[in-house]
Amino acid sequence: MKQGTGKLRLKEELAGWLFVGPMLIGVTVLTLIPIVATFFLSFTDWNFVAGLDGLKMAGFDNFTKLFRDEVFLKSLRNNAIFLLTVPVYMALALLLAVLINKRVYFKSFFKVVYFMPYISSVVAVAIVWQVLFHPSSGPVNQFLRSIGFNQPPMWIADPNWALVSVMMISVWISIGFNLIVYLAGLQSIPRDLYEAADIDGAGGWAKFTNITLPMLSPTSFFLLVTGIISSFKVFDLIATLTQGGPARSTSVMVWYLYETAFVNLRIGYASSIAAILFLCVLAITGLQWIGQKKWVNY
Amino acid sequence: MFALGILFLLPFIWMLSSSFKPEQDVFNYPIEWIPKHWNAIANYKEVWMGNHPFSAYYWNSIKVSLLTTLLSCLVSALAAYGFSKVQFSAGRWLFLIVLATYMVPQQAILVPQFILYRWVGLFDSHLGLILLGSFSVLGTFMLRQFFMGIHNEYIESAKIDGAGHFRTFFTIALPLVRPAVATYAILRFIWTWNDYQNPLIFLRTDKLYTIQLGIQKFSSINGEFYSLIMAGSVSAILPLLIIFIIGQKNVIEGIALGGVKG
User: Fold this and answer.
1) What is the chain B residue with the closest CA to A95?
2) Where do transmembrane segments lie in this chain (chain B) (predicted)?
3) May I ask the CATH class of domain A83-251?
């Protein structure tokens, strides 16, 4: 009998490994080993063309170089500015979610409408915006001129406006996702809270700030974390719209990483950027887990 | 509210309407939302059957997206079942390790992945691209939530009847979580179809290009032919839109539920 259960246990152990095996192999080969490799390569000086013999250990050289590298610092600064999109689209999404939630009709129509930019491919969307923002003949500027702006901005062709333009498009794309998550959050708030507030004679604004906002704080927290992290990873939009230009005005860390690795073929240096990117994301996740205890209502 | 929705859609409406116009009308102002002159058939014919035919890119995208979705669903469902319904001692910490990798930004590991692919010969192949998208922590996590919702009695009674875990998985557990698998499948398909970064880095041969690379190449070659470029953009977005509208409920629920972004 005892031997029987022992055999059963062994079978269960084996089954476990078999079920998770494929996933485990994939994660190990495609994520775990590469992340170790990234950190290792970040301390080397290596060029794609050189082959394995050309690999030299460089210690912290790459990192000290990075923090004196104007382009990298500019990219880092742009990343920081890009963070501003997160509160903007969160606020807009919340506003829209509250409005849509009140409506009885056309709910799913609005969901589809606001979700379309999120579901569409960034490449197609970027191409459309590129044309819309065309400095001389684009519809946006033609419209602006027709209502009296004689010198409308050049949008993505203008170093002062390019980042703002990309950020505007990013907001437009991200609203849908945030809206859907907020709608789900709104639906889980118990009705009786509002009824109780009605009895107390609370107005719409009071209900919003005293019930809706606090009850949504876990949702907001979640959206903030994912939003900030994804703002660090923005690549498709930059790659298809501006390629980091004009004059580096839209270069972000990930774009610089791509350029360094796959255009200039400097593996070691690119890996240091990757390591910093990883640490940034890690730090944000960590900070927010600590911070959430203070202001999230569960 | 309605007006705001329309405003939100304007870029799409402009894209669609431009794709029907002859080139010289694209930038007419005031904007002709409904084209005065139609050139739709010629535009779409050029896009689909011209020098850089979208039909080929389409086929590549369909192939890569479908196979990635299938493989990813299988791998994720197996792992999700293993992590939730099989009692093995390593399960708990293995799950934590897998979950932790979710935090790794994909771009931080691109370079080693690239080197690895060059070494093992997966570079510039559809198989390589499919494998990249097939080991999804997110899918595993999502499906695990659903497997946990299945009562253990089901599993145990199957066991008493003499079914091993694999039979239980395929005949009992998997059918029970079918809606969740469908949701994840739609999301994975959309993400793979829309993926630009991986094909950009891991594909070189024009013949292998997926639609996202195809449309970008098309737009850089056709430079000033905006009506054609818009027809291409419409073509790239349309299938997804159809899938999304059909599977709307699944997609929205999946997003809201898992709070997923990827």
Assistant:
1) B1
2) 57-81, 93-115, 127-147, 168-191, 225-246
3) mainly alpha
